Amino acid sequence: MTRFTVNGQPVHYRLDPATPLLWALRDASNLTGTKYGCGVGQCGACTVHVDGVAQRSCQLPIGGIEGSFVTTIEALSRDRGHPVQQAWVAESVPQCGYCQSGMIMAASALLERNRNPSDAEIDAAITNICRCGTYPRIRRAIRRAAAVLRGAETIAAAPPPGIDPADAARAVPALTPPRR
């Protein structure tokens, strides 16, 4: 059994210690915000924080992180209030959106250690692949989130996640067929 903490909760997985963290998170813990992209550690869609450091979870065996603290996109901010998430929305970063959770996790790890990164430092730290090519917006969003973290700027809160269950459960009125 492998034991560590995921999003503040102690877990122990009865999985082969060679199981990649990505699959333990997605399949055993149902934390599907961490995405499978390439499976070889190149794209970064699976990025999570392990002890505060951005890591590609598809290449990280759970047996190697015994006793560690893992944070996924689900726990970065429950209300999407993290400055990186707010800046992502304000700068209209997402296009297809698949790489976004990994990008956000990589960016938030960078800003935890450097609240005023240069463009070169951003480029060196964010090696995730965005197939849609939104890199200029990503860089702007990271610079904006850094300004928020330094107290130099504020951003209105991002919209709440999902659809209100009451709205989803409302009955849709029947359509009247057209007259002929």
TrEMBL record:
The keyword Membrane appears for this protein: no
Keyword Iron: yes
Matches recorded under Gene3D superfamilies: 3.10.20.30, [2Fe-2S]-binding domain (1.10.150.120)
Domain 2Fe-2S ferredoxin-type: start-end pairs: 1-76
Keywords: 2Fe-2S, Iron, Iron-sulfur, Metal-binding, Oxidoreductase
GO MF annotation list: 2 iron, 2 sulfur cluster binding; metal ion binding; oxidoreductase activity
Superkingdom in the source lineage: Bacteria
Chain intervals for the UniProt region annotation (Disordered): 160-180
PANTHER family hit by this protein: BLR6218 PROTEIN, OXIDOREDUCTASE WITH IRON-SULFUR SUBUNIT
This protein's name: Isoquinoline 1-oxidoreductase, alpha subunit
Lineage of source species: Bacteria, Pseudomonadati, Pseudomonadota, Alphaproteobacteria, Sphingomonadales
